[in-house]
Amino acid sequence: MDEYCAFTESRTLRIERLLPGPIERVWAYVTESGKREKWFCSGNMELNAGGQFEMKIRNADLSDDKEPPEKYKKYAEGVTYFGTVTKCEPPNHLVYLWHDEQDGDSEVSFELTPQDNDVLLVLTHRSLVRRDEVVSTASGWHAHLDILVDSLKGDKPRSFWTNFARLEAEYEKRIPVE
Length: 178
What we know:
7 strands; single chain; 4 helices; 178 residues; alpha+beta; globular; 31% strand
């Protein structure tokens, strides 16, 4: 399994991770604010179609690495986004629209499939608008999922911002310029 995002269609990224199970535990880390904030964001999520989702993203709280790269300094204190759940089938499938005032709505899908004692997570993010948004989003999901793996294994989370910067440079090379 390639750890990097695949780009399955224009403005769509897909990333897979094999995570330590069981599936109910992984589902909790995707849907419960207290667990989700360890690797991505806190915030209430109504687990039904039409439910609202508040995403309070504070990357500085994810690891000992508190200082974002210069171009992301505006996010140093965190940022809040909102979403709307469009599909919720516990513990296998969650889809939500991510509302962004600048770029409009994009769609995020989490698919969880048991594989022996592990869980295959497939995250797909669709309808991204600009190339720089694709690069940043791919780097962000990759870095967040790396921390999810660390959290589920009980390991110290790797440095978010250092990992993000390394990944952003890599995705800058991997994603074609239009």
